[in-house]
């Protein structure tokens, strides 16, 4: 990964470059008004090899800490971070004003007018007897029927290991997942312009989700009674450094229902049974430059693991000469929506690829695609013409497990242990349940897509290999796409009844709008890992309701 | 709709039918052990016309109120509810044992052993100053920047009307939605067997989502500080009756984040800003026989409306001679998974179709499909080969607005007011954001699909017509599919700059598993209505954080 030292070096070199001052002055700014960031350079062909370079782009911080909304559009520097020199400087944006972007300071202390909303009374999650979980040895979280190891990681952000769930019949802990983490985060921007084409971030491998995860804000990022965990990482020179309060763990009660049933009175049963849902969440938030990524791993007593990624922070905006939509050519207006005067919110995608090393009861697991297929009835067989049938297809090799999700070709995606059977004979398993998602539509030979080819499918399954942790390859910065999940999977190895890793990519398309300015309300999406015949029956049937005090 | 009286009549007629007693005795049951339910008969061709009929199927309630798990498989009666006679009786299931189904009583009072899970300490949502919302005239809910009318409805369950949101600049209430409700709920089971083929429920139009919504259980169905609202409905003979505490309204705080941003220290800004998310939820739960459907309409201060449907309750199981999977032919085992001894969980789908009469600022609205399309760069134009472009397509007529969702042909679906522009010139709008979804794969000419043809697409837009409220037609029971959303939409009326209605269908495929036995942990999915240039900027920028006391 790039280190904080690499970034500091790049910024120092750039900020002392005289041409930059000239560009600032030309835009009516003094050098101290300028704040720069370091987009990764990507890799766009053999001519770029042999140098460790980074891009530097700058903004005006005049009157606001939200400099992201005030780009010095058209100005791009390429810095060689080993030689500590600017190797390329271009400024094609002299005609484009720095957006005025008033009212962008989002810090509460600088809000002059109050929010024009009827006030919301204080509300909090209270636990008079304290939380119900423990954290042993600083890392082993035990709660209800769950136990797992939780670790801050410089690159992945947060790693869940050895997640075990007590059997509902015997109370014995059973393995669910050996290791789960966000392996890579690919963010391609959709503008071929010379100042924009390279923006195709691979945030985990380039900057680090843990390295950029700042302290969480108590009561605002995490509710009362949260337990906070530090990250302890290595600096560029080997010195350890601490990211304090980087992860929080808390019990979540949102007023949701765990299970319920009422009977209508007609049959004489007067039944109203409902159980509230309480879950355990491990959370961190990476601030990779402008964007904030909030990761939640939520554990439910019914065995479900719910993984949510929420996006907030700042847009990357592009300066334009246009103040209003009417002044823009219609094509430009559609593709890059105006989010404020002289500021276009550039279209982009986010793809978060999870490494999910499932170990259902043991390492010998099999991936099963249960296809829902339309069957037609035979003439005279039934008044019905059609119905669905579930067809189980065992994935023998990696080829069988490369999956693009299709609404009209639905399947259930299970990881099972073929040797562990329920009393009825069903294999113990977990399924991955996609929620809302988005796919990468870029050309497979486009350099950013080649490097992030792990987003070519939403699901992949590989045999465990200790060198295959990072979906974009161990060395991601300026990588050429020769060490990605797609390359590994192309070997088409056997995956049946083996120690397998499930990969899932969660995607977002983002067409910005004015509500995203100057800081975005969170947008979230999620997927679930859900038991399928792992238990003999509903494991929380016997859960107690809450009674009035 | 069928009335409770229709159901009572059908049950009386069935339970006094001598053949039924014989069938019960043959299975070792006494008549008092038998509980029956009334599946709707559907409509399967002209030969069935002219009679108001209902099916009756029975179960053993011996030792359990969860009779659903103990079917008298193969026994089906057809009752004429006007003539009050059994018009058809078949019992083909004499060889199939009634599943023993031990341990199915889900009532807490009858649990003998405690749950084998480390206890969870008490946890609750507390509001020392009370809730922040008011309910005026029994129906008008006011909270934060929202105001809407909330009504219990015998058919739809819950209706949100005249939802208005205060403008963040002026404080003036602005119209978002004239009316939103669940218009129909289609549940086709996937078994062509003579005792199963007809199971293709249309729960709103046949049984009523409000008519079957029992009292919510305080603290278990809804958190502390909930406000409860009754439903007041008409009986078959016009007598009013009350469904007490049918809807709850509460403020939800789940420890989620409304927006946030941290700066990494490298630029000298030491910023940690985060805002907690508090929302307002209106909830009801319909118990349509075995299944429980929990509907949440959640309102956020950033303008987003989040609609969630959660499913719980009981499976419809099919008796089988097989005790374990090994005894079953492999095809049968795959399609109808064994969930307990002698009990198959039959595959089925759920589709909930929402009527969303959006009125963005006024009635003159337009549906815009913003397609994300891959563009290729020209040779020499850019190191990038491809990027996405947003192309706005205005739907002129209903043909343009029939949409099947595709992951690889993504679009944003907006309802805009072309006359109401932001200061930048962007039209005020809301978009519908699908989450996880499932589509109906049945043959379009299959009678159940013909009657529920509103599930042929996930999105439709129609011009407002007061006769087009119920997606399956005003009279759904034994309908023939000649008055559905698909029929209305086929007229291909003009919809541009008109009072339009957006229809969205949320679907679930359900392959049962042992965890669903004997009562299902909730499964949920959702969609969002989200402002797009409705506000000039993030409307909650100025929201206050929570400070430690």
Q: Major sheet of chain A: order of its strands?
A: 12-13-14-15-16-27-24-23-21-22
CATH architecture of the largest domain in chain A: Distorted Sandwich
Largest interchain contact: A-B, 194 and 195 residues
Anisotropy-based shape of chain A: globular
- Helix % of chain A is under 10%
Structural class label of chain A: mainly beta
Indicate the multimeric state.
homodimer
Mind telling me the CATH class of the largest domain in chain A?
Mainly Beta
Q: Assign the CATH superfamily of the largest domain in chain A.
A: Copper amine oxidase, catalytic domain
Number of E-type strands of chain A? 27
Amino- and carboxy-terminal Cα gap of chain A:
54 Å
Instruction: Report the β-strand fraction of chain A as a percent range.
Output: 35-45%
Q: Which spans of chain A of ≥5 residues are poorly predicted at pLDDT below 50?
A: none
- Quick one: biggest sheet of chain A? 10 strands, antiparallel
Mean pLDDT of chain A: 96
For this structure, the CATH topology of the largest domain in chain A is Beta-galactosidase, Chain A, domain 5
Our count of helices of chain A gives: 6
Q: Provide the domain count of chain A.
A: 2
Rg of chain A: 26 Å
Protein name (chains A, B): Amine oxidase
Cofactor (chains A, B): Cu cation
Enzyme class (chains A, B): oxidoreductase
Modified residues (2',4',5'-topaquinone) (chains A, B): 291
């Amino acid at each position: 990964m790039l280190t904080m030292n690499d970034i500091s070096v790049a910024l120092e070199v750039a900020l002392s470059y005289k041409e930059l001052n000239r560009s600032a002055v030309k835009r009516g700014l003094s050098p101290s008004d300028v704040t720069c960031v370091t987009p990764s350079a990507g890799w766009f062909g053999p001519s770029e090899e042999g140098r460790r370079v980074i891009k530097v782009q700058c903004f005006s911080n005049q009157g606001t800490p939200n400099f992201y909304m005030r780009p010095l559009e058209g100005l791009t520097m390429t810095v060689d971070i080993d030689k500590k020199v600017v190797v390329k400087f271009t400024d094609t944006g002299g005609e484009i004003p720095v957006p005025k972007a008033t009212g962008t300071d989002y810090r509460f202390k600088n809000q002059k007018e109050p929010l024009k909303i009827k006030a919301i009374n204080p509300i909090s999650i209270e636990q008079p007897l304290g939380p119900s979980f423990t954290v042993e040895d600083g890392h082993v979280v035990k709660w209800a029927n769950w136990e797992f190891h939780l670790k801050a990681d410089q690159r992945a952000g947060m790693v869940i290991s050895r997640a075990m769930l007590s059997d509902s019949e015997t109370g014995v802990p059973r393995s669910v997942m050996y290791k789960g983490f966000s392996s890579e985060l690919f963010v391609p921007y959709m503008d071929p312009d010379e100042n924009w084409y390279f923006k195709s971030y691979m945030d985990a491998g380039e900057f680090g989700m843990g390295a950029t995860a700042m302290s969480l804000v108590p009561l605002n990022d995490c509710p009362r009674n949260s337990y906070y965990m530090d990250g302890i990482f290595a600096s560029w020179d080997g010195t350890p450094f601490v990211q304090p309060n980087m992860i929080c763990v808390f019990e979540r009660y949102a007023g949701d229902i765990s299970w319920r049933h009422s009977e209508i009175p007609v049959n004489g049963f007067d039944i109203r049974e409902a159980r509230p849902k309480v879950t355990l969440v491990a959370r961190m938030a990476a601030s990779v430059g402008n964007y904030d990524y909030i990761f939640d791993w939520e554990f439910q007593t019914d065995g479900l693991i719910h993984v949510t990624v929420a996006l907030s922070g700042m847009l990357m905006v592009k300066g334009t000469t246009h103040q209003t939509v009417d002044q823009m050519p219609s094509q430009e207006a559609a593709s890059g929506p105006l989010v404020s005067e002289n500021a276009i919110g550039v279209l982009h995608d986010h793809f978060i690829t999870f490494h999910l090393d499932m170990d259902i009861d043991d390492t010998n697991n099999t991936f099963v695609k249960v296809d829902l297929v339309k069957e037609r009835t035979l003439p005279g067989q039934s008044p019905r013409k059609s119905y669905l049938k579930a067809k189980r297809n065992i994935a023998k090799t990696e080829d069988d497990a490369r999956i693009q999700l299709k609404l009209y070709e639905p399947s259930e995606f299970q990881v099972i242990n073929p040797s562990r059977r329920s009393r009825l004979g069903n294999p113990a398993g977990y399924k991955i349940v996609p929620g809302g998602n988005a796919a990468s539509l870029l050309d497979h030979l486009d350099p950013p897509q080649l490097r992030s080819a792990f987003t070519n499918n939403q699901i992949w399954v590989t045999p465990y290999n200790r060198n295959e942790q990072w979906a974009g390859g161990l060395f991601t910065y300026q990588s050429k796409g020769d060490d990605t999940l797609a390359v590994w999977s192309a070997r088409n190895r056997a995956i049946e009844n083996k120690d397998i890793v499930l990969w899932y990519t969660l995607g977002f398309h983002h067409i910005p709008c004015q509500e995203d300015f100057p800081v975005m309300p969170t947008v979230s999406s999620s997927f679930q890992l859900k038991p399928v015949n792992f238990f003999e029956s509903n494991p929380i049937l016997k859960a107690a309701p809450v009674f009035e005090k």
